[in-house]
Each structure stands twice: as C-alpha cells, then as structure tokens.
Design a protein that fits this description.
- By secondary structure, the chain is of the alpha+beta class.
- It folds into four domains: about 100 residues, DNA Primase, Chain A (Alpha-Beta Complex); about 130 residues, DNA primase, catalytic core, N-terminal domain (DNA primase DNAg catalytic core, N-terminal domain); about 200 residues, Dna Topoisomerase Vi A Subunit, Chain: A, domain 2 (3-Layer(aba) Sandwich), CATH 3.40.1360; about 140 residues.
- The chain is built from 28 helices and 16 strands.
- It has a five-stranded antiparallel sheet with strand order 1-2-3-4-5. The protein has a five-stranded mixed sheet with strand order 12-14-13-15-16, sandwiched between helices.
- The longest helix has about 35 residues.
- About 35% of the residues are buried.
- About 5% of the residues have low confidence.
- Bound molecules: zinc ion (ZN).
- The site of zinc ion (ZN) has 8 residues, from loops.
Amino acid sequence: MARLPEHQIEQVRESNDIVEVVSDYVRLKRSGRNYFGLCPFHGEKSPSFSVAPDKQIFHCFGCGVGGNVINFVMQYEKLEFIEAVKLLADRAGITLVFEGGTSQSVPQKSDDLSNYYTLHERVTGLYEKALWQSKEAEPVLAYLRNRGINDETLKQFRVGYAPDMWDFVTQQVVKLGLSKEVLNRSGLLMTKDNGGFYDRFRKRIMFPILGVQGRVIGFGGRVLPGDDQTAKYMNSPETPIYHKGNVLYGLNLAKDEIRKTQAVILVEGYMDLIRLCQSGFRNVTAGSGTALTEQHGKVLSRFADTVFLCYDNDEAGIKATDRAGKILLDAGMNVRVIELKDGADPDSYFDDHTPEDFQKLLDDSPDFMSYLIRYYKPRLRSATAKSNFAERFVSDLALMSNQLTRELLLSQFAEGMGLDEPVLFRILRDKTRRQPRQRNNESQNDATNTPGATPGPIRLESATDKAEYELLRLHFTDEEPVLKWLLTNLDAEILERMHFRDIFRQVRIALEKNLPLDRKQMVEELSDSPWQSLITRILFDLDTEKAITIKLAQDCVRTLHHFQLHEELKVLRQRLREVEKSGGDFRAIIQQKQALELRLKTAQPD
Ligand SMILES: [Zn+2]
C-alpha cells in the first residue's frame, strides 16, 4: 500500500506557513508575537482563536481545538490526514512521491471527498479541451473573443465548453472507476430511469468554480448567445464539495489582492468578473448560483474592510444591492456602491469605457446609505409610499445582529429621508423584539463552516486537574534541571492515578528519548488524539510569565499526593463502617487509618 514518507510530510508542513494558510479562512490580527481571530469552529464574538507563528500551531481557548497547519486544514475542510497533506502540497507546489506507488494509488474510500475533487478536475480538463480543440466550439470561442475576452484570460479562468451531446462527460468519467454514488452526488451527471447516466451540462460555456484553495468544486454553465430555450445560467447543485451559500467565484485568484488593498469589488456574474479582472481590477469576486448570504458576508469580512457593490444597474440589480448592502454592513464591512449608468452591467461597461473611467467610479462611489437615500428619495412621492418604504427598511434593519450598526443606519436613514427619528426607533425596537432572526435559512443550516464535532476544551476545574496540567506544562520546558527532576521524581504511584495519565505516559516516553521535547514532533504525533488540544494550549501557555521551577513541580506533586491520600482515607472510612456494622474486627483498619492520617498531615500542601 502506498504511504507518504515522513520527510515529505515535514516538507509540506514547512512550506505552508500556518498564519498564511489560516488567513485564507480566518481574519487574523497580530498582537504581540501571536495572531488572534474569531474561531471558525465555534460561534464567538470576541477572538479566542490564536495562532503562534514561531511554534506553527493554533489553539482556541474557547472550544479547545488546536494543532498544526495540517490539523487545521483537516478540521476546517473535513479531510483525512493524507488529503489535507495533499491539499497543502498542491498549495505549495510540492509533488508528493508515495512509497510503494504513485499518488494515484492512495487507497480511497467511497465517501472520500477527494473522489469529487478528482472528478471535477478531470471534467474541467475535458471542457477546456472541447473549447480549444473541437470544431463545434469554434463559434463559441469567436463569440468570447468578440466579447473582448482574450485567450490568456480564458485560460486563466479555465473557461471551457460542454458540447451538445448527452454523454460527452459520462462516457469519459465512467472509466475512472468511481462509485455510482460519487457520480450521482457529483452534480455533473443526471440519472436515467434505467439507472444509467447522462450529462447535466450540454451546449453551454462552462465556468469552473474554484474553492479558495484553487480546486474545482462546481460549475456555472452559460447558454450560447441566441439560445432562448433554457435558463441563461445553470449551476452545479449542492454537492459534498460545493456549498453555494459560502462559495465566492474568483476568490482563489483575487484573495491576495483583496487582502493587500483591504477592499473587494463584488459583482453578480462570471462574465462581469472576468471583464473587470482583465481590465486590471484584480480584487473582484462574485456570488455563485445564489443570492448573497450572511455566510458570504462573513467570508468577505475575513479578507477586507471595504466592499464595493457593483451590480447591474436595473431594477433587479438595485434590489439585490439593497439586500446585499445590509448583509455586508451587518458583517461589519464598509459598504460602497458603484453606480453604472443606463442599465449597464460591469461586463458591457468596458465595451465603451476605459479602466480609468471605472477607477473614477470607484473613487467617487457613495457609501451604501447615501446611495439608497439618493436613489429612493425622489421616487417616493406620496406619504404612503414613503411610510411603506420606511416600514420595509426598518424590518430589514431588525434582522441585523449588530445593534450598533442597526441604530447608526437608522439615524442616517431618518435624517436622509426626513423622517421622525424617535418614531422609527420605536418601530425598530418593537420589530427587533418580535422578529426571530432568520434572514437566511440556507446559510444557517449550512454546517460547512463549523466542521466536524470538535472536542470541548479540557476544563481544569479541580485543584488536582490544575496541578496535573501544570506538571504536564513543565514537561515542555527547555530547563534541563526541571526536566531531570520530573523524570526522576514523578513516581509511578502518582502517575498511575492521574486523570491525564495517558498523555503523561506519551510525553515522558518522548522526553526520555530526547531532552528537551521536540514540541512540533509532539503536536504532530498527537494528530487525531483528543490530547492534541491540551498540548497546543500548553504551548501557548509557555509564553506566559508563569514560573518554571522545581519548586512549582514539587508543589503540584504535593497537591496530587495529598488528594490521593484523601481518596484512600475515604475508602478506608467506608470499609470501617461496613466492618463495624457486620461486627468484625476493625483494629487493623483503624491502624491503617491512623497511619494515613499522619501521612496526610505531613503531606499538607503549603
Ligand atoms: Zn473555538
């Protein structure tokens, strides 16, 4: 069976800086030597998720998850160890060489997500080949070029073509030997009544949708010009790897630029994005196959402070702007609106405008509220129209989770529309109280952002747990005298009765081999172990000013010893009562009890 040699895993780990990788998923801010952010594994309002670049580990002090860069990817992407290593290898451009086989021969389970990734990658290649090489696609290619998209851009976005056939993809992918279930759930094929398959996408321009790590996870298919038979766009359905509610098209290419500029341009369509990108605006992204969700808002706010909404300038586009703006404000972003004139969309805009024109629009773009007021005020002439609009607006605000944003917007709105502020505030308070918050069920049910069941933090409530924790922490110090003391003085009697004895055992075996401990190695060894998060917590704790002394070790041992004697005493007292009741001879027990009580007195912790 193929396996990955240790040095390859090491290389992958070292080529993927944990801060960089985590930053693709979590907005991190530096504070001192570490980084902090909101934990992606449990809901929280203040950051307790920490990343230590010097140790290359993460730990959440809220829910207790922790580990190295590979563990982070495993937990976030819900991947097996080897799959996470593969993803990180791709990210760093490392080709993995497996022992006893090629990377293709890694054993795969049928529910393994890698099957879906492999399938999507293969199909992307087929569509690309069809666009560039088939006779049928020649007019399609001519059309795209005519729309002002050059070949380089088409290749960058891996645009392809699904030919007008029922089995173009089907006949190729059945050869891959994937299970029927994978083919069925991939969203690429449809099932026939007789159980066979046929292609979902036919006679369409294909835009592969890539996840933030650059793997194809779905497709958007656009009809050919002049074909009014079917919907203009058709997207992959929800699949095990494609969750519309939190995927943003083009983010994999745009993320660095977005992070650098702290600004993102949000458009509606794939073509809009491609045109903008080709015109030199590289911090652009788009929703894919669904209206903007709260989840999208959260994703965007991880990368940037400011979002420029650039939707079509028609009625539907303005409605979408209105809705998206509120979601993004609620996610804590500054929202500005780019207004294209005369029903234009970003794609057609560049037919007769230059990038400089667009830059000017960007620079002059109003903030969201000014835009809304300027748009709606002249359109709401009657008192009824105005009050209906205000009602709807306040209802939307009531759905926001951020109270401060809600109230600031309301003040701005009241002033801009010339409405009575106290009255609006009263309505808002009323609605906030009454309305259960549910704007977007889709995003709330979407569990993709809270991967797996994460173990809770190990709570150190009792004095003995605290003492055990401190003792374990001392094992990770560099101070040799302390380490030597621990190895010689922590006796089996105490160790065997500890709560954390399993992890003590493992740590001490490693320590006996190597003084001081190889911390990275230890984190690595504990992948998949419930103890891993305890260790990452300890590694963060090593930075604190807490003393590392033999005296501390002695105190902890005394606490544990004291507790253990107490426990023995309890057992003895119980036995004494039983023997008394049955009328037996209890003198021996009394002697034992007295000896124990004496030991307990001398073992009293200070
Ligand atoms: Zn957490």
